[in-house]
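Support reply, case 0932

Customer input (verbatim):
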Amino acid sequence: MARKYAELRAQLSPEARARSEQATKDMIAEMALSELRRAMGFSQEGLATVMNVKQPSIAKLEQRTDMYVSMLRDHIHALGGELVLIARFADRDVKISSVSGPSTSKDAAA
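Our regenerated output:
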């Protein structure tokens, strides 16, 4: 006989519930672009319409292992999100405020 999820969850210890919730958060925190698109309720065709491109462009983008930050930013923006870049170091995380071309000697002096 099938049991309701709420009943099964109620039988879990607080520690087991916490582990389960953390595992869920971890899975959501790491998604491929195609998984993210589906989770946000978009088809490739629907996202292509929002981005004003053709559907094959979305399929290609989702299969890429390397892309421009601007392409990724546009993709995330079309899904209703904001791309935030974080540089992770041993002692701290640094949010990258802008990504531009190579620095000039003027930039290096600043």
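We compared this against your earlier run and they match. Two observations from our side: The chain has one domain: 32-109. The chain has a mean pLDDT of 84. Please reopen the case if you see a mismatch on your end.
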